[in-house]
Amino acid sequence: RDQPRSRGLGDVYKRQTLALTIAYLLLYVKFKASLHMIGIGGLIGFSVFFSYEYQLNLLLPIAILFVIAGLIARSRLKLKAHEMKEVYIGALIGIFSEVLVYAIYNM
Q: How much is the pTM?
């Protein structure tokens, strides 16, 4: 690979739009996903693909993001704002939207 194939901020908007659309559609089946976890999951997914695409060693920042994700998840559970499955689903939606849009536009 000579140059990264990223299309800039347009891809970021597509990824987050996909994640929020999935969360919105889940509301129709009476299931709420943690938007906080969607956000941090998306940031983790973006950081991983950014590191891969630009051949950067972002291991420490990504590890810190995982710690922050754990703290966010714990706070959502402790405040009884979400159940465990809602937190997990939120994180998975955030990461999944990054993977899917990256696969569609960059593979």
A: 0.88
